[in-house]
Amino acid sequence: MVPEPARGMLDPMIRVLVVDDHxxxxxxxxxxxxxxxxxxxAGEAEGCDQALALLDQERVDVALLxxxxxxxxxxxxxxxxxxxxxxxxxxxxTAYPEYASEAFQAGASGxxxxxxxxxxxxxxxxxxxxxxxxxxxxxxxxxxxxxxxPPAEDAxxxxxxxxDVLRLLARGLTNRAxxxxxxxxxxxxxxxxxxxxxxxxxxxxxxxxxxxxxxNLATGEREST
Length: 225
Prior knowledge:
Low-confidence stretches: 1-10, 145-155, 221-225
CATH class of the largest domain: Alpha Beta
Mean pLDDT: 80
Largest sheet: 6 strands, parallel
Radius of gyration: 18 Å
Number of domains: 2
């Protein structure tokens, strides 16, 4: 029997199954994940059948699925994976935005487009592992969700500590990892992240990463005025 993911542990190793029928795509994703100390490629599959076979043999925390594959597509694969391995989170990475609603109905925890930056993908993998739902901001309207509002005029600029937290968010760190990095309490880190969301008007960690990158805040540089 494959052991369940050790959720709640400090510094867990998140094991990712990459499922895509294009070898070059799998190679690029593997290269991206291998550079992260807390992410590990548990295996690669060309389609649903091979993915299910690997899931029976390996401990997997997040299955990263393409949507359009030969044989069983992403929606069917999501449904089958969730039925056979309910502890595995499914994150869709695709070039096709029109299947997002079906994917979430099938049990996906996230839906990302392949135009996303690598930092956004890394943040999405970590977020779905910890139980969050990740939705590409550009897809929110099509799913009938409220898009992010602009920051309130009286919200004020980000404080120096919030900028520190935002930079760590852009690196893909979880709230707990941010707390350890800055030597603050986990609840304090949660409060800083919440304040960043309110002040910037973003609705997800992925959107916060995009906000930081677009304003050159991810590396400590201040936004030009």
